[in-house]
Amino acid sequence: MATILCVDDALVMRRLLKQILEDQGHTVLTAEDGDAAMAIARATPADLVLSDVNMPNMSGTSLVPKLRRLDSYKDTPIVMVTTESDGYKKDKLKSLGANGWLRKPFTEKQVQNILNHFL
Hints:
The structure is a single chain. About 45% of the residues lie in helices and about 20% in strands. The protein is of the alpha/beta class. Helix 1 links the parallel strand 1 (about 5) and strand 2 (about 25-30). Helix 2 packs parallel to helix 3. The radius of gyration is 13 Å and the shape is globular.
């Protein structure tokens, strides 16, 4: 199974994603913002990153290009998990290296579809 890094400032969202992913047999690393995610990423490679866009300290918009600069994350799929639906933001994040978009609120089936697509 895969190692997945989940980044979200909302504890309830981190717990929800962790539960869904662990129930499917994946190893889940969690971080409350981009700073914490970078500390984890420097130490541990992941097979997939699920990241919120709007977070304190370091947003998802700042996190994506920083992850891409790490050798172990240059090809890792990064999916943004957010309430944002603005086409401009999607295009901006894609240009920075994001690979996909999962809109909150989401269903377990939508999470599974993301896993099937990127893993």
